[in-house]
Structure formats: C-alpha cells, structure tokens
Amino acid sequence: MTPSAASASSSPSARIPVVSTLSVPTADLRDALADISPNVEVVLWDFIGAPVGADPAGIQAVVLPYTGRAHLDGALDAAPNLVLVQTQSTGYDGVADLVGGGVAIATASGVHAAATAELAVGLALASLRGIDDAVRQQADGRWSPARHPGLADRRVLLVGVGGIGEEIRRRLVTFEATVTRVGSTAREDGIGHVHGGDELAALAPDHDVVVVITPLSDATRGLIGREVLAALPDGALVVNVARGAVVDTDALTAEVLTGRLRAALDVVDPEPLPADHPLWRAPGVIITPHVGGNTEAFPPRILALLERQVALLGEGRAPENLVARGPWA
What is the pTM of this model? Predict the structure, then answer.
C-alpha cells in the first residue's frame, strides 16, 4: 500500500485495494488517461483480444465497453485479481453476473443525464405533437394538418426519481406539464412528495403520459404491467428510456395494437425486437435504438469521470458511483 493510500484510510484496520493497473476498451481512452496518476498504469483491453502490454492477471480494475456485453461472458475470468469494474452506462444490470461478489461496480451515473432527459422529452414531444405521423406523411407527399395534445398541461407520471429522473422533471416543468413523481417508496424530499411504486395503478387513471426511468431490478421488472397499462386513460402515452424489461412488452403491445395507448420507446424487451415484432409497425409507436445517452456530450463527460476515478484510485481512495462496494465496503 502506498503512503497516500494509507493516509486515505479512515480506520487502521480498513482494507484499501491497491489498483496499479486499469484497463480501458479503446486506445483513445488509454492515451487520454495515461498521465492522470503516476500510481496507475492504464492499458488497452477491448475484450476481443488479449490486453495490450499487460497480463490480465495483473489488472485490478477494468472499464467496460460502452455498449453490449454479449462477448464479455467469461472474459473477466482471466483477471483473477480484479477489484473494480467501471461501466460507461448508468445502468448496471447484468454486470454482477460477469464478476464475483467481492468485486466493486461503479457506474457512469450523471454522464448520461442530460442526453437521456433530452431524448425522453423529445420522444414525448414527437408523439404528443404528431411529429411521427408527419414524418410518415412526408414520405408519401401528404399534407394532413391535425390537432394533437401537445405537452403543455399534460399530466405526467414520472417513474424514477434519480439523477436522470430529476433532469427529466426539470425539462417537463419548463414545457408546462404537471409532474407526479414515483420512486421505490413513498417519501418527502426537497421538491415535494414522492409516491411509492405500489401506487402506480391508482395514479395511472389521472395521467396522460408515463415516463419510465427507473433502474431495472427484480423489484422493477415488469413494473409497468397489465394492471398499470389498463388503468391509463384512452390515448395515454408510455415513454420508456429506462430498460426494456421495466415495461411488460406483451401487455404494451396488446394496448397499442388496439389504438388505445401510444408508446415512444428507446428501450425494448427483447432488445433489439425481432424484425417481425408487431411493435415495429404499430400505429402510434416510436422506437429509437437505445440511444438515450449517446450524443456528442458523452465522450468528454465519460472522460472527465474516468479522470476522476483514476485520480482517486491512484490516491488509494474509493471511486465515485459505487453501486457494489466490493472491497470498499
């Protein structure tokens, strides 16, 4: 343990992991992070080939690729001394399956907040102002004016009150929508009342729009299911920028195919949808390919986070955004 690591300890008996080698999945990140800390060597490991310039057994921390994990199954077994996995996403579902229970997991919480909030509101606006219909009509050369609900004065049920949820709320209020917030449990915070998830079915009839941004967990899988969807008023819109499995795909499909509900989805379950899935062609449905955080704001923001993480690790301090603390417990 370095002297700086020892001084960071709050207890003489506290175990502070030594992270001397961190892998990143791209050469750009490796080069950008190379000189952040003299105590941390940054190497390239894209999980397609072997690490460049390092034995995987010597790697203590890894940054996962931005998207996709299909090729990662079993890959981290080659790094038996791993203490930290850093995602480039806010969500971390499935990451724990890649590592043992003693490995810490840190997310990119905050990096994607503005971009995901932009898309959530953009999807809502596109649907509520009929922009999706206009684009389809444009392809046919049709001019078909119509009155659409719009976002102003809509009653929005916002499911998820974390960092991204708050960014969505702020933007919705700017558009003069009325927002009801739902979290895991009912409580008061600095903004006002947060309803519990067990109130969703009771709240649904009084709302025109549901925006979903809660993390996927055992408790939230299928949270927006048949009961909640059936309770929504005719013409209501479901916007999902969280994880596809938070919304029951079969139940939502049944509702939109009747024309009773509309949907604007950046995430689906399964992902991607099979080419013959009826949601692709259902009227009143907008689908974007899981691009919520993928704007030009992402590269500088993820780099800024990783710079802070490397600096903290080099000082023997716990990284930010730990959702599984591993040896930092």
Answer: 0.87
